[in-house]
User: Fold this.
Amino acid sequence: MRTSQAAAELNVSASTVIAWCRDGLLRTTRTAGGHRRILASTVAELRDVLALPDGQREPAMAELRRRNVGEEPDGPKPAPS
Assistant:
C-alpha cells in the first residue's frame, strides 16, 4: 500500500505515516525506485492500536515497535555490539 493510501486509512497526513514507518510502527518494503510500500496488515494493526484507550495505547505501540525492529528499511535498528 502506498504512503498516501495508508494515510487515508489512518486519517493522518503522509508525513505522519512516514514518521511512523521510521519509528517502527509500520512495516515497509521499498520498490526498485525507492518508494515505500507499507504492508496492509501493519496498517490494520496500527489502526486497532490507535483505537485503544489512552492507558492501553502506549504499551501496544511499544509492542508494535519491538516486533518491527530490524524488519523494515526505515525502522529502528538494533545498536551495534
Remarks:
- The chain is about 55% helix and 5% strand.
- The CA atoms of residues 28 and 78 lie 17 Å apart.
- The longest strand covers residues 28-30.
- The helical segments are 3-10, 14-23, 40-50, 54-68.
